[in-house]
Amino acid sequence: MKELSTEWQTAIHNQFDPVLKANAHINTFGQSVTGGDKSEQAMNVSPSLSPDGTKIIYFSSRDLLSIGLFLADASNGHIIRKLVDTTLDPHFSRRGDRP
Q1: Which residues contact 48 (CB under 8 A, 6 or more apart)?
Q2: Is residue 68 part of a domain?
């Protein structure tokens, strides 16, 4: 079993190390503005930039056991406010009224 594991790891490295070396790190292109939560379980997904480019909205699991919708400053990632808190209200609509 150990030999199989070693062979598998070697095959993965042989396949993907050249790809990883050929690609630039994300910080080459800009700074992360949604990565302020360093928790291993943190997840920041579905970002959308405002039309004027000053704000970003995204879903985040930065709060334990829930996913919230956050509005942040696009230049530095500072959270302006939490728009939806699924621990308190799992329902929301585009217009802000309840379904």
Answers
A1: 56, 57, 58
A2: yes
Residue 37 lies in a domain: yes
Residue 11 in domain:
no
Q: What's residue 71's pLDDT?
A: 94
In contact, 56 and 48? CB cutoff 8 Å: yes
CA distances from 13 to 5, 21, 51 (A): 12, 11, 42
> Do residues 59 and 71 lie in contact, with contact meaning Cβ atoms separated by under 8 Å?
no
In total, how many domains does the chain have?
A: 1
pTM comes to 0.57
Phi then psi for residue 58, to 5 deg, are: -160, 160
Tokens 């990883």 sit on residue: 20
